[in-house]
Amino acid sequence: MPKTRHRRAFPRRIARKAVSLLPPARADAATRMARATRDLVTGRPAAKPAAPSLSPAPVYRSRPVMPRMKPKMPVGDTSGWTLPPLSEGHDIITEVLYDTGPDAPRFDVELFESLNAEYADRPIVKEPTSFVAADRIETARNRIGWAEKLVNLRGKTVLEIGCSNGYETYLLGTNAGSDAYGVDVNARGAWADLAGDTVHFECADMTVNNPYEHNTFDVVISYVVWEHVTHPRALLQETYNVLKPGGRAWIRANLYCGPKASHRYRDINFPWPHLLFSEDVIRDWDVKEGRSPRGPSWVNRLTWDNYRTYLDEIGFRLKHLQFQEADWDEEFYQRFENMLGRWPRRDLERDFFLMVVEKPA
Ligand SMILES: C[S@@+](CC[C@H](N)C(=O)[O-])C[C@H]1O[C@@H](n2cnc3c(N)ncnc32)[C@H](O)[C@@H]1O
């Protein structure tokens, strides 16, 4: 068979195969379309239109699926090259630098348990924050005082995104002189007791159905919410939309690569468990410990660079940025460098960011 014919026959074979996989009505349309294209390109006179069919016209639920051809990458001329000899040994590994066999370290429940025991007397979080209501209220008070240092709250319309039980929103509206709005995807029982003339709550996902008009708020605040958000960029975009021009957002959130980002530091003592172990292993360990299989507790995996990209794309101006960095455990890092070295060291160090961003006036 001449070479040129062989080359031309190959795509035709693929096209025929692709057409054979389509349902009959679509296959018919695809064949007609391919013939028309061929006639156009080759200058062949167009085939006579087929006699009108008496069968009912096919009903398409979606556009016909056409096989896609990948564009060819441009390559230099390699026709004169001397090719390597065909070798019997091309599939045979003759030396191994990294052990991937049965004796290689396995990131399984047994290793997880032994690391947790090893770090039991020096857990990554020594005193986790309390969930007791009185302690949460004290934390909320400190947080509002913290936000006040960087954004003006008095006399302002303020939205708290991810307000949970509503204490910060309450303190904003009752003590900090704001007209305060709290929004969360889960409504809390406490809202009914906390709501008032200057304290309002809404159960909504702003990324799906934003209940607030554009250009409504002077300030947005949010505490440790963004890492739990399914569509973090969309929520940043909606934050931008609801801010008035010149309005500012004060946002603190946990970063994915930080040592505590699994959010399981009440049970897990050693750093970066979510980067070393699969979620399945963490769930299996939960079950072994007699708990329901929770696994790690974040939703998205954003690093600071991802946030920065989104801020720039949306049009926010970064006015203030601070990282909370963890104590660096060099011995642990070196031990698992093969796994942890896959992320930039500066991301592994950063637990939280606190930013103030502005919608340009
Ligand atoms: C870790 S909690 C923090 C709650 C509170 N800010 C605090 O510091 O106690 C995360 C909160 O974010 C809420 N959340 C998750 N996705 C959200 C979204 N798209 N919009 C608003 N809230 C969201 C959750 O329901 C949860 O109350």
The unreliable regions are: 1-10, 49-53
Provide the gyration radius in Å.
30 Å
- Provide the list of bound ligands, each named once: S-adenosylmethionine
Structural class: alpha/beta
Task: Outline the structure in words.
35% of the residues lie in helices and 15% in strands. A 7-stranded mixed sheet has the order 3-2-1-4-5-7-6, sandwiched between helices. Helix 7 (232-242) links the parallel strand 4 (217-223) and strand 5 (243-254). The protein has 361 residues and is of the alpha/beta class. The protein has 2 domains: 3-33, no CATH class; 109-358, 3-Layer(aba) Sandwich (Rossmann fold), CATH 3.40.50. It is globular, with a radius of gyration of 30 Å. The model is unreliable at 1-10 and 49-53 (pLDDT under 50). Helix 4 packs across helix 5 (167-174) and helix 7 crosses helix 10. Bound molecules: S-adenosylmethionine (SAM).
Question: What's the arrangement of secondary structure elements?
Answer:
Layout: H1 3-20, H2 24-42, H3 109-118, H4 133-150, E1 157-161, H5 167-174, E2 179-184, H6 191-194, E3 199-203, E4 217-223, H7 232-242, E5 243-254, H8 273-276, H9 279-288, H10 304-314, E6 317-325, H11 330-335, H12 337-340, H13 345-349, E7 350-358
S-adenosylmethionine is lined by residues 161-162, 164, 183-186, 205-207, 223-225, 228-229, 235.
In short:
This protein is an alpha/beta fold. The protein has helices at about 5-20, 25-40, 110-120, 135-150, 165-175, 190-195, 230-240, 275, 280-290, 305-315, 330-335, 335-340, 345-350, and strands spanning about 155-160, 180-185, 200-205, 215-225, 245-255, 315-325, 350-360.
